[in-house]
Amino acid sequence: MNPCLVLALTLALGLTASLPARADDPESAAKEVNQALHLKPNLENGRKVYLICSVCHQPEGWGSVNGAYPQIAGQYASVTIKQLADIRARNRDNPTMLPFTMSKTLSIQDIADVSAYIEHFPMDPHNGMGPGTDLELGKRLYAENCAECHGDRGQGVPDKHMPMLQGQHYRYLIRQFEWIRDGKRRNADQEMVKQIQGFSSRDIAAIMDYTSRLAPPLEMVALPGYVNPDFPSFWRPRVTLVRPMEKVAER
Ligand code: HEC
Ligand code: HEC
Fold it and tell me: Which domains does the chain have, with CATH numbers?
């Protein structure tokens, strides 16, 4: 996204003051997740809170095809809630987003509201995909190693905070997978961490390419030309309009 926008937003929100020096705090995160899951979401407030998020994740929640920003549209509210709580407890490193998740900016009710608001977004019909050259291998490795937890179509399991992987950008998937494997993403599932140690870089590229092609059900995908009607005049960078295969072919 435009760095000037981030800076303007940061200044506007008065977030340049030093952040509290908090160590990793899985317990406070778990408590917040539990609280947020029991609140009744207010979608109108979710829309207002989302104004901040839209600057990076786009008004449609589709992130960027190059994977710098993940697609969050359609993700289960339980997953978004857990990620927000983990990020602000420093249980998952996300320095870009951290200032926008602090409790001064985002109450627990706000977390519940914005997560419920995003869950109903139609998803990106053109998410970033890999080169499509090793899909047989990807399919086999996914079925053997990932489907048991993430579902045969990458649909996830909302009650277990198991993220939906379908429709996610290829490069974002690879980055998260490697961070989970290397222990850099500390909020990861420990069983997954153990299970994924042995993959080669070819395996990882193949699994993620296959995973990025696990399409969400049609009714969850946006129609051509869709823009979030709540943000009609938002400036949308061209990157969201580039088709994934063109983008990947540039590499
Ligand atoms: C300044 C930019 C920025 C802002 C503002 C921002 N995010 Fe993010 N967000 C990111 C980046 C970058 C990542 C990916 C980090 C990584 O690769 O681990 C991310 C990741 C996420 C994830 C994790 C997705 C996943 O699949 O695990 C969620 C959920 C999320 N953001 C929700 C939000 C919400 C809700 C808001 C508004 C309250 C918000 N973000 C505001 C930059 C931002
Ligand atoms: C034992 C269950 C389990 C297995 C097996 C597993 N995962 Fe996961 N995975 C999880 C859980 C739980 C999370 C979410 C952790 C969290 O809360 O951040 C996750 C997170 C992820 C993420 C990050 C998603 C995001 O939105 O940021 C990716 C990518 C991923 N898994 C890919 C895979 C792939 C590919 C495989 C197979 C090679 C796999 N996982 C196997 C449980 C599992």
Answer: 25-124 (1.10.760.10), 135-217 (1.10.760.10)
- Cα(158)–Cα(74) distance, integer angstroms: 12
Q: How many angstroms does the Cα of residue 74 sit away from the middle of ligand 1?
A: 14
Residue with tokens 């602000």: 88
Whether the CB-CB separation of 195 and 120 falls below 8 Å is answered with no
For the segment 37-84, what is each residue's pLDDT rounded down to a tens digit?
A: 999 999 999 999 999 999 999 999 999 999 999 999 999 999 999 999
Q: How many CA atoms lie within 13 A of 162 on its CB side?
A: 19
Q: How far is CA 147 from the centre of its chain?
A: 19
* Phi-psi region at 225: left, alpha or beta (left = phi > 0; alpha = psi -120 to 50): left
Q: Is the CB of 195 under 6 A from ligand 2?
A: yes
Burial environment of residue 60 by CB neighbours within 10 A (0 to 12, 13 to 18, 19 or more): buried
How many Cα atoms within 13 Å fall on the side-chain side of residue 200? 5
| Residue type, position 120, single letter | H
Q: How far is the CA of 69 from the centre of ligand 1 (A)?
A: 7
C-alpha 193/C-alpha 173 separation (Å) is 15
Q: With the C-alpha atoms ordered 191, 188, 177, 122, is the resulting torsion angle positive or negative? A: positive
Q: The whole model's pTM is what? A: 0.89
**Ligand number, closest to the Cα atom of 180:** 2
Whether 121 is in the pocket of ligand 1, judged by its Cβ within 6 Å, is no
Residue 142 Cβ contacting ligand 1 at under 6 Å: no
As given in the structure block, the two tokens for residue 206 are 């193949």
Spacing, Cα 114 to ligand 1 middle (Å): 12
